[in-house]
Design goal:
The structure holds 2 protein chains of 2 kinds.
Chain A lengths: L2 H60 L4 H16 L3 H21 L4 E3 H19 L3 E7 L8 E3 L4 H12 L6 E11 L2 E8 L3 H12 L6 H15 L3 E9 L6 E9 L11
Chain B lengths: L1 H22 L1 H4 L7 H17 L3 H26 L4 H20 L7 H24 L10 H24 L6 H24 L5
Classes of the chains: A alpha+beta, B mainly alpha.
Chain lengths: 270, 205
């Protein structure tokens, strides 16, 4: 073979083999890279849609008002009307309508300020106080270090306060007190304690057991669902404990709030 | 001696691929590879006939027939998997025209170089067209289990290895026998190896 022919042969062989190897490497590199990109996009879309779904579920849960509470309030108003206590029934009705309006307005929001939450709880407890007459006292306080404009998940506390009133104070023979305190923990965290001097968790459960009724606590289940969804939606880290008081009778619920900031959430800065 | 061993290896891979296609026939019926066992049978028959036939001109005729059937078969297959793309129709028309030119201008008992070169280039273009469409689709997520991906990769590799040979044919220059054998063995082993992977992939409609 002439040297020119050998060169051509070598050139064709090298070109063919390099083209094959190069094509295989190129195809697999490009496809694997694109596939990973597509998988990532799909995963992110899925996460986004799950979060949207959680947000909707949270909104639905927020807008749930305990039917027992509505029923009890309307019964109380009816009771005052029947007793001809028009002024009292008007006060009751005004507070009740204000509370319902707040429920509907705030339930659309994911977060409200601590001041709004305090006002909502104040309104709720003042209605319950009317129903319980002299049997219920309450206090809502806040540490001075804690900013009133700090945000909190909307209406998370109301079901806990509702439990304290209906399961703690309701069964108590004497006047009961519910004390709600918003405490400063750190720059990005705060604590809410709901203390009642009612009959406590153990006795409350025993009453239910003796009555033969199943303890179907709607407020607690709504609360558990909401805490779970808040965790899934990656917006808040909320640690929740509920236990009997050691110093005296009653229960103490503690919630520690810490907002989670990540690329998928948009919690307003505190 | 070396070239004989290489050719035996190529034919073994081809027969193995044909056996797999028939073994997986029930599965293949569910997907786009439904006619592949028949095509593989055709390829095996061509190889067997060529092996037992000693006349060079008949041999060339057999391989010309093989080329024509192969190009038409794959153009129609690409037409099916690329959702009846009009570009495939256009390329198909180009191939048929090149075939007519070849039959008119070239000796049928020799090599129909025009149709062979155009056919190889069309296979290359169709492979690129398939990859472009695959990269935009959701099927990309599981492309490793996609039979069409392996078939097309086999075709592309074969085309890339075969194109330099077809070009040298058109210039009436053929590299040494050993080089041709070596390239043909590599591309054929890869082609039928990838076909076998495609036949073993789960088939989807």
């Amino acid at each position: 073979m002439s040297s020119e022919k050998i060169d051509s042969v070598l050139l064709i062989s090298v070109f063919s083999i390099l083209a094959i190897i190069g094509a295989l490497i190129f195809i697999f590199t490009v496809f694997i890279k694109q596939r990973n990109k597509l998988v990532k996009e799909k995963y992110e879309n899925q996460i986004m849609s799950e979060r949207q779904q959680h947000a909707l579920e949270l909104q639905a849960l927020r807008s749930q008002m305990n039917p027992h509470f509505v029923h009890n309030s309307l019964n109380a108003i009816q009771y005052y009307i029947q007793r001809n206590e028009v002024e009292l029934s008007e006060i009751y009705l005004t507070k009740f309508s204000k509370l319902i309006r707040s429920f509907f307005t705030l339930s659309r929001k994911r977060h409200i300020t601590i001041a709004q939450e305090m006002s909502l709880l104040e309104n709720y407890l003042s209605i319950e106080q009317l129903r319980f007459e002299d049997k219920l006292n309450y206090s809502i306080t806040k540490d001075t270090e804690l900013d009133e404009e700090d945000i909190i998940p909307t209406m998370l506390l109301q079901p806990i306060v509702e439990n304290a009133v209906n399961h703690g104070i309701f069964h108590k023979a004497t006047t009961g007190t519910v004390a709600i305190h918003f405490g400063y923990v750190s720059e990005d965290s705060f604590k809410v304690t709901i203390i009642d001097d009612g009959i406590g968790l153990v006795k409350s459960k025993a009453i239910f057991d003796n009555s033969g009724k199943e303890l179907n606590n709607r407020s607690s289940s709504v609360l558990q669902d909401r805490l779970k969804l808040l965790e899934y939606s990656n917006t808040w880290k909320v640690s929740y404990t509920l236990e009997d008081r050691e110093d005296t009778e009653g229960a103490i619920a503690t919630l520690i709030f810490k907002p989670i900031e990540d690329e998928h959430t948009s919690i307003p800065s505190r | 001696m070396m070239s004989d061993i290489l050719l035996i290896v190529t034919k073994l891979v081809l027969f193995l691929s044909a056996i797999i296609s028939f073994w997986r026939w029930k599965e293949l019926k569910l997907g786009n590879l439904v006619y592949f066992p028949f095509y593989m049978l055709f390829v095996v028959l061509i190889e067997v006939c060529s092996h037992f036939n000693g006349i060079s001109s008949i041999d060339k005729l057999l391989y010309t027939l093989f080329d024509i059937v192969t190009y038409l078969f794959f153009i129609s297959w690409f037409y099916k998997i690329l959702s009846k793309n009009k570009l495939v129709v256009l390329l198909g028309v180009c191939y048929v025209n090149s075939l007519i030119f070849s039959l008119i201008l070239e000796d049928i008992t020799g090599e129909l170089k025009i149709q062979s070169t155009v056919g190889t280039m069309i296979m290359f273009l169709l492979s690129i067209l398939f990859y472009t469409s695959l990269i935009k689709s959701n099927q990309l997520i599981d492309f490793i289990r996609l039979p069409a991906f392996w078939i097309v990769t086999g075709i592309l590799i074969f085309t890339l290895g075969y194109l330099p040979i077809t070009f040298s044919l058109t210039k009436d220059f053929l590299p040494s026998r050993n080089v041709v054998y070596l390239i043909l063995v590599v591309v054929n082993v890869l082609l039928y190896g990838f076909f076998s992977i495609a036949f073993l992939c789960p088939q989807k409609r």
